[in-house]
Amino acid sequence: MNNFFKLSFIAIATIVTVAIGCKKSFLETSNPNQMTEDKFWKTEADVKSAIAAVYSPMRLPLSGYWGAFRGYQDINALGDDVLTIPGGEPATMQVAFFINDAKNGDIQDIFAKLYSSIYRANLVIENTAKANLDAALTKSYVAEAKFLRGLSYFILASNFGDVPLKTGVAQSSGDAFIAASPVAEVYQHAIKDFSESATDLPLTRTAGDKGRVTQGAALAFLGKAYLYIKDYPNAETTLAKLKTAPFNYDLIDNYEDNFTDKNEFNKESVLEWVYGPINSPYSPWNEESGGNAMYNYRPQLTGSPASGGWFKYIPSQFLVKEFKKELRPGGSDTKFDKRMYATLMWKYSDFGETDATWYDNKTFDDLWAAAATSIDRFEPAYKTFPEGRFLNKKFTSAWRNVGGADNYWSATPSTANVEAMRFAEVLLLHAEAALLNNHPDKALESINRIRQRAGLVTRAATDFPATADMMAEIQHQKLLELYFEQNRWNDLKRWYPAAAALKTYLSSNLKQGADKVETRHYIFPIPAAELQTNNKLTQNPLWK
């Protein structure tokens, strides 16, 4: 595992102590062994450990926004591309079925973790200069903290709407407890942080610092933020920068390598969270303690019971139908889109191809039989499988073909990194921005790069007589390319701004809970625990 990210375990206790290290009265004496603010921020090692701690809340293997039990599980469960197995964690089921409220524990945890990152980022921004480092190095650390603060606010804006903007370390309770700012201001602050950080972040990182943010990551999320606020000219211009020098991003040949540990930090990687063999794989529950494991636990949640997985999701029939819409040209080595074989598992012979096996040569029938009890929990409407029987492969460890590979108690728990931004997403964001900025030719260039890697024929402008036709292609490709990568729900909200239209669309795709969708479900409520703590904060009007 990257040495930089091991520093976060060292830094957590230090940062908390620095924040509360002042005396309450002259009668209190200092503990000479306790790290306080006057002892910290003296060296680059102090700053480096502090910045490592800013990453931590977002990438914790279970409860981080990209961790298995929070954003990965809940944000994906909102989409129409997966079905959530009934009987799982109540908090996740509430989110998946649109029956959550302000007391939902998962939502509270996501909110709190993001503000932990913001608080720590503010500490770095305000204190790095005290270490008297080289001016360029100081700027780089501050830029890194600004990016992570901007990323936290971008996630908060897209998921919660109006939230408090905390741009400095609170000096009193009056500073700590503030009212929410309008979502437009929150997005603008994220954009400011992304823009400023892009100026001072390095283009690349050395081997020991892989996984730390770069200028490319800042520009990618800056472009994404512009797209979310419908500033299409700036979105197109910003994202187009990543397609040319000095950047050398590209799509890797094997799509599946983005989700294994075979080819990490490849040319498609814009930002990935580092996971690896640190501490016991059986102790992921200690959050940020020194003994916390940092393996990738997504396979445990996603994988088949036949491989030791908890089997919480299966792909929706809507997703399968979309994958089957376009076959590869005659004479190709596969019948379907190449991505389908990396994303899903099925009985190939049901569709005229030679069968494959997984997990120490288990057949698809073996995998389906092991999952049958869980599948039987579905309501009848979800058990007809008109498109056929399919299971998830993406984010499992099926690619290893080792028995029990999805079980983190096994001999081979996953150490695969998690992609937070891939160049493939940059291309699709660029295509959307370019199209909506009246540059369909530029959009088509990006679309065709995605299609070529998938083994599909390139398209011509004449294939899309209207803007709506090309937009439908972008939406289709984004569904297939970014399946299960925490994007689908935010895309749907942008593409269907009227709740009634989204409700109809989701219902047509047999999305669980679609009948419950209202305008308020476009955001999460401010958590009840936060409202109880902050007396200047009120609930979003949609949730009152």
Automatic annotation (TrEMBL):
Q: Which Pfam families match?
A: SusD-like_3, SusD_RagB
Whether Zinc counts among this entry's keywords is no
Protein name in UniProt: Carbohydrate-binding protein SusD
Q: Which SUPFAM superfamilies match?
A: TPR-like
Annotated signal sequence range = none
Q: Give the SusD-like N-terminal domain ranges.
A: 101-227
Regarding protein family, the annotation reads: Belongs to the SusD family.
The protein's UniProt keywords, in alphabetical order, are:
Cell outer membrane, Membrane, Signal
InterPro entries attached to this UniProt entry: SusD-like_N, SusD_RagB_dom, TPR-like_helical_dom_sf
The subcellular location is: Cell outer membrane
Q: Which GO terms describe its cellular component?
A: cell outer membrane
Q: Species name for this entry?
A: Niastella vici
